[in-house]
Amino acid sequence: MKFKIVSREDKRSEKIKVTMKQYLTDFELEYDREEPEIVISVGGDGTFLEAFHRYVHRLNRTAFIGVHTGHLGFYADYTPDEIEKLVIEIAKTPFQVVEYPLLEVIIRKNSGERDRFLALNESMIKTAEGSVVFDVKIKGEYFETFRGDGICISTPSGSTAYNKALGGAIIHPAIEAIQLTEMASINNRVFRTIGSPLILPKHHTCLLEPKKDKSFLISIDHFSRTYNDVKSIQCRVAKERVRFARFRQFPFWNRVRDSFVTEDGK
Ligand code: NAP
Ligand code: MN
């Protein structure tokens, strides 16, 4: 089996990377940057996002594992003292795989150009100056005209990230859905939005259509780009999924509790 290790590149992560690489090679696994079947991220959730995007073109042939060298992460949920056990498990395939839903974002320009992205956490649509104004359509029907700082559309596993800071709900990743949360919408007698976060099931496509030609700042997880001449931004649950190699149970709600409430379970 072919593997690749992506590290945050700090001293601790690099050391763990070297150790794991040695162990796995001793088990006759092959280090392969181009076509790894297993990708191990060593660092934090941010490192995991990078690893995901590096291999996003081969999701059906790649399983991911995250080892954290800082605080407990949502994707980086193995500890450095587990790596020996982890290496043995990886070496004796087949391993168990858990799949999580992703967000598909399609940006269409008036010129006919089109960009497609997959997000593991979320996509945010903002503008560098002033407010964004767009019509929000759900399943082809007009829903509202949004005016405000922007909109965040997150995946279930991304619901504990930026979405949570915006007051969105935490969604279990077994639920195939995307969540729309508002960023400072303007609400008065002229402009009105729903105000509450919306949770859309699979096949309920959300379309954002700019009302005036503006330049938008569109982020996909940890990277962002400026777009001009935007015709529409389409969001829905992607047909692709991310695959995690699972070697032990660590239920989602336990991760939520340990990260946000209390670590000793009391
Ligand atoms: P960052 O600024 O280091 O990330 C901010 C924090 O979010 C870090 O503590 C990061 O964990 C954590 N995080 C990332 N994904 C998460 C998830 N699914 N659930 C819970 N926490 C998560 O930037 P980054 O490391 O490149 O990560 C980018 C992500 O950070 C974005 O996708 C966005 O969701 C999130 N973010 C959140 C806020 C906020 O809550 N106000 C602000 C900016 C960015 P690590 O330290 O382990 O990397
Ligand atoms: Mn980070």
What can you see in these coordinates?
The protein is α+β, with helices and mostly antiparallel strands and 266 residues long. It contains 5 helices and 15 strands. The chain has helices at 11-26, 45-54, 83-91, 162-165, 252-261, and strands at 2-7, 30-31, 38-43, 63-68, 96-109, 114-119, 122-126, 132-138, 141-154, 177-185, 198-201, 206-210, 216-220, 223-227, 230-246. Strands 5, 6, 7, 8, 9, 10, 11, 12, 13, 14 and 15 form an 11-stranded antiparallel β-sheet that branches. Strands 2-1-3-4 form a 4-stranded parallel β-sheet, sandwiched between helices. Helix 1 (11-26) packs parallel to helix 3 (83-91). The protein is elongated. It starts with a strand and ends in a 5-residue tail after the last helix. The structure holds NADP nicotinamide-adenine-dinucleotide phosphate and manganese (II) ion. NADP nicotinamide-adenine-dinucleotide phosphate is lined by residues 44-46, 49, 70, 73-74, 121-122, 157-158, 160-162, 165, 221-222. Belongs to the NAD kinase family. Its EC number is 2.7.1.23. InterPro entries: ATP-NAD_kinase_N, ATP-NAD_kinase_PpnK-typ_C, NAD/diacylglycerol_kinase_sf, NADK. Its main location: cytoplasm. Its cofactor is a divalent metal cation.
Q: Which structural class best describes the helix and strand composition?
A: alpha+beta
Residue share in β-strands? 35-45%
- Poorly predicted regions are none
Quaternary organization:
single chain
Associated small molecules: NADP nicotinamide-adenine-dinucleotide phosphate, manganese (II) ion
Helix content: 10-25%
Largest sheet: 11 strands, antiparallel
What is the overall silhouette? elongated
Average pLDDT, to the nearest integer? Answer: 95
Radius of gyration: 20 Å
Q: Secondary-structure element sequence?
A: EHEEHEHEEEEEHEEEEEEH
